[in-house]
Predict the 3D structure of the following.
Amino acid sequence: MSQDNLIKLECTVCKRVNYHSSKNKKTLKNRLEMQKYCKHCKKRTPHKETK
């Protein structure tokens, strides 16, 4: 994966970075938000893209 396409996904509940992903920044302008499993909260929570 290219460095300029990498993004961090942060849990909205505990504010920890749990996942790294990639996205096409030319087609997706707004921030990504997904339901992912947080190992610290031990449940599925919304994860938002950080800087």
Residues 3-50 form a domain with the Rubrerythrin, domain 2 fold (CATH 2.20.28.120). The beta strands are 6-11, 17-22, 33-38, 43-50. The mean pLDDT is 92.
